[in-house]
Amino acid sequence: MTTLPVVLVTGASSGIGRACVDAFLAQGARVIAAARRVDRLELLHDENPNTVLPVAMDVRDRAGVTAALAALPEAWNTIDILVNNAGLAAGRGPVHTDDPDNWDRMLDTNVRGLLNVSSCVLPRMVERGSGHVINIGSNAGREVYPGGTVYCATKAAVERITRGMRMDVLGSGVRISQVDPGMVQTEFSLVRFDGDSSAADAVYDGVTPLLPSDIAEVVTWIASRPPHVVIADVLVYPTDQAGSGKLARRKS
């Protein structure tokens, strides 16, 4: 009997993470769905009791991440693909007036969180000579826009970490990739605007944004390449976008 591949997705309770869970399940994988919102994970498990393992995880908590991954059942502890998706943007003001707590949330989640999870998964991948890490970055890591100084810096760090990680595992058989989405309609803006749904919805006025499933399709395509092929990085925009703040808004 062939063992189904195991995929670990962080930030799996919504948005791109949830879409990646669904996409990998559709391809016949088993998925470790990791996130802080356990209630959503349990619903996901109820829908897929044999192929989804819910894991409560705050990627910012290194000790918690280590403990959660060390406690995986034997049938799940060989992770073939890691999708480092957990991330957020907090605050939107100039850096000299922004709340430093916002900086900490972004640095701890977007940068340290990615490292915390990767440091637990990568050693075993390198040891057995196979595995794939796919980091979800952002077009914001390639350019800077007003009000996004620290967020853009965290996503630029993801790009540097991804490139360095690829060099560090060179020759091991482990593949390292990155996907940089542009505007995607998720809870991202709702979080950034502190739950103000009107302000979050206004971000997408007159624009047809990407859907989480669009990015999940790219992620699963990258993961499905033959072992001798690594898609190093992919930048994905909706047709109505050509960069941060560069949008073609249609009048209603």
UniProtKB/TrEMBL annotation:
Alphabetical UniProt keywords: Oxidoreductase
TM annotation in the entry: none
One Pfam family linked to the record: adh_short
PROSITE patterns, per the entry: ADH_SHORT (PS00061)
Gene3D superfamilies for the chain: NAD(P)-binding Rossmann-like Domain (3.40.50.720)
GO molecular function: oxidoreductase activity, acting on the CH-OH group of donors, NAD or NADP as acceptor
SUPFAM superfamilies from the UniProt entry: NAD(P)-binding Rossmann-fold domains
PANTHER family in alphabetical order: ALCOHOL DEHYDROGENASE
Family: Belongs to the short-chain dehydrogenases/reductases (SDR) family.
Record protein name field: NADP-dependent 3-hydroxy acid dehydrogenase YdfG
Source species of the chain: Blastococcus haudaquaticus
